[in-house]
Specification:
It is built from 14 helices and 18 strands. It is α+β, with helices and mostly antiparallel strands and about 425 residues long. It is elongated, with a radius of gyration of 28 Å.
Length: about 425
Amino acid sequence: MLDMNTFRENADLIRADHDKRGLAHDSIDEVLRLDKEWKDALHEQSEARRQRNVAAKAIAEAKKSGDQQEVDRIMSQVKDLGTLVDSLDEKANALLQQRDELRMRIPNILHPDVPVGEDEGGNTQHSLHGNKPEFDFDPRTHNELIEMNKWVELERAAKIAGSRFYFLKGDLARLELAMQNYAVDFLCKRGFTFVQPPVMMNRTAYEGVTDLGDFETVMYGVEPDKLYMIATSEHPLTAMYMDEVIEPSLLPIKMVGLSPCFRREVGAHGLSDRGIWRVHQFTKVEQIIISHPDESWQLHEELLQNCIDMWNELGLHHEVVNICTGDMGTVAARKYDIEAWLPGAEAFKEVVSCSNCTDYQANRLRMRYRTADGNAAVHTLNSTAVATSRALVAIMEQNQLDDGRVRVPDVLVPYMGKDVLSPAPF
């Protein structure tokens, strides 16, 4: 969430950002109103406490001098001050809670270079990479390829877990494992530390990293423990330093996370979303950086470059997209997507999301770093490296052969020990 001082000292900046997003200013004005009422309640409470302390001192002096009449007079005047202090404390706490609950739903301030647009149609191409694959046959969709090669069991998975779950078999399962190892190795060579996070989080931590009002519908809850299955390792890794003051010498903290991810993925989807493209459980390698504010924009570009280099090494044709104001979520200040070309669908589709969240998550998580003038919020950044199921789709469709087999990307051959995927035996 945005720092409260930004509302108090620069509310017009937030209003201008809302104008870019096409949002009304009502929530901003309400935060300011609640903040004023909260400060007024604190002032009234402080004054009531002062009066109670003055009275207590006067009562003690009257008792010392033996003036019971004066004691009774003062006590009759202040008999309700204790109740007033308690009620003002309750009022102040309630106002603070209302203010901050509303503040948590107000989106981050966007970077000036974010393109203005009403929806995803306003996104702009940042760059284009690799060669578009050409075939001397009609390219198949990944759905056709996994069926021909018996690499995926959708119907049998649906019997035991429901739709959009799957069994992954044979060489395609081995390719997924190869891709995980490759991505982790790639990022460790670039100074990232490998971290495997817990796959469940409590509500307090989850509210620190995302707007649950928007995100809760796609998450799996665990009852009666009041936990959530993680939707991405970004969430536990970003929350790792919740309620902590980080020594500045440790910044930037660079992590590469590997985890299963769980999403309900509600709503209708197109034909190309079937198969293993849009599923409830998948594996993802994620980049996370916790940084000094002065370094975060440079590091955002570094995250993006890591992704571009990785997808270039995989030999996959892709584009980088600037996400516009109307397609931006609550948390990020700027976001790039990488979209891989899918010949079977004849379209670019998202495989990577790369975001700088500035101090928005850090404020919610109360995550600071030490400075000479006190503690200040860090910046948090995240980017997909590889969501393996989607990367498998891109590899299958771009590297397919006329007989339905699939060529292994050169950088993955050492991990696979072969250069062409074979069909599964059953």
